[in-house]
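Bench notes, afternoon.
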Amino acid sequence: MDKSKPSHRFKQTICDTENGTVLLIKDIVADLHSRNKTDIHPNLIDIANSLLQAFEPERLVDNFIEKSYEHWDEIASHSHKFFVNNAADVFYGLPEKYIESFRELFRGKHVVEEDLSDLWIHFTSMVKISIHYIHESREPKLVNGKPAYSNTNYNSGVGKGVPLGWSRQ
């Protein structure tokens, strides 16, 4: 696996066994479960991780981009509603019970601020890697000294709505 490719970095960001997004979510769930703040069992997150591990990196990042790019401004502004309102879009393809489990984490006010902050770091990273992936997929080149793309057929104009602030974060 070429870990330098954006799609592979994206998958590693999500699935890494030492510092991935799924591990962070499992830690949050385990904490809430131990305090009787959720009925979600941490083993559900392991099952979701197994499903994510089965995805090819390109499919994983393509699905994320397709289902989330319209919400990237909410990620940039750390909108709490993002996690509740858009879980079905962002995690499209996962069984509904896992999407609902993720959504449940954020309906209550039990997730500690430090954990939320860490989640925003992960989601911001996922968006930045996605932007890099889109750029590389469009095959940038110079034409008469000006930037242009060789491949203009990347998914139905995904990226047109990317907030300008992403380039500065």
